[in-house]
Known about the structure:
With 288 residues, this protein is mainly alpha-helical. The protein has 13 helices and six strands.
Amino acid sequence: xxxxxxxxxxxxxxxxxxxxxxxxxxxxxxxxxxxxxxxxxxxxxxxxxxxxxxxxxxxxxxxxxxxxxxxxxxxxxxxxxxxxxxxxxxxxxxxxxxxxxxxxxxxxxxxxxxxxxxxxxxxxxxxxxxxxxxxxxxxxxxxxxxxxxxxxxxxxxxxxxxxxxxxxxxxxxxxxxxxxxxxxxxxxxxxxxxxxxxxxxxxxxxxxxxxxxxxxxxxxxxxxxxxxxxxxxxxxxxxxxxxxxxxxxxxxxxxxxxxxxxxxxxxxxxxxxxxxxxxxxxxxxxxx
Length: 288
């Protein structure tokens, strides 16, 4: 089974062999601590290319040159006026040198890392969050009028979001072969993190991306974002509290039913352990 050409040519293998120049690329799976991770890298003093930089309210979205700026007065956080989270934003980046020197080409390929969470927990969080997140384009206030079990029966496409995105196929036509392809992409192209091993995962991302997190200031950033002591190894605190479904219950089984994402997540857990050995970071030496 071959990888899609765009993935094979534009993304570095997790082994990193033969690649001295790369662009760190965070694949944001919704409701998998993505906002926490972005805030972490803001705090660590890195400049981020995301939707913030192209937001019209900051006044740089129509600039014809690349601009680095601090969007919020109360934070010493920096972004550039390029949104790499949308196709439109990436196409706009072609106008700047940024597209040549920082987006993907054969000499400067993407090095991908991603945080994963059990898909049942992710679906549960998504259901409750989008009922009240009126600032999101995917806001669904009507979901507050239905139960989680009824919602799960009518929103089956959400169950396979990760596989759908990885193989670039409609959720209605996904097969077990697509699951195997998604596994191959994860195995060969993505350094994986687990939300319930948040601090440990962040350290892996930093090592993989060439980011030094050893300073007291950066360790403080990690601790503040995770809301645990810097050497702790606990799940990041949920910033959106909601009812939890107990594993093994009928509702849990309903949410997991026919989910290729659940099968992919179980594979990700295996890959997480393998990558720790490959990168030379096991649970013991990461938290020592």
